[in-house]
Amino acid sequence: MDQRTNRVSLSLIVGVFCLTVHTGCAVYLAARQAEHKDLSVLNPGTPRTRVIASLGAPQTERYRGHPVDFFTVRHRQDGEWRMIRAIGHGMADLTTAGLWEFLATPIELPQDRDFLTIKVTYDGDDQVVGHQAFPHGHTR
After folding, report:
1. pTM, to two decimals
2. In what order do the strands lie in the sheet with 115-122?
3. Are residues 67 and 60 in contact, defined by beta-carbon separation less than 8 angstroms?
4. Which domain holds residue 91?
5. Cβ of 127: how many Cβ atoms within 10 Å?
6. Residue 25's pLDDT band (cuts 50, 70, 90)
7. φ and ψ at 7, to 5 degrees?
8. What value does the CA radius of gyration of the chain take, rounded to a whole number of Å?
């Protein structure tokens, strides 16, 4: 009986360890996604410095003497939706003893790669003239 108890205890410890290590991937992926970017800075007339402050450092080219910026941003939902997804994944993990992760992680992984490239053109006063959005890697 003592040997059987030891085997059951060891199996339980190994099972809890595996669940602890594995559980939480989908929760982490859902919660850590980038914040929604304020794309209203792309409206015509916005100063270039404000666009860069909001979207981050661009890759810059010059066209006919004017700057053309290329920004790469993650196209994401707002913070509330991210937290709702993370809580939902956590509850499903607890309910299914971690088995939910086998379905949820492949669902969350592609969402982590959803990038957009935004081309922004300016006038001579470095004010936004227009912009175009492309799937990442397709800028022309």
Report:
1. 0.55
2. 59-63, 66-74, 115-122, 128-135
3. yes
4. 2-135
5. 14
6. confident
7. -65, -45
8. 23
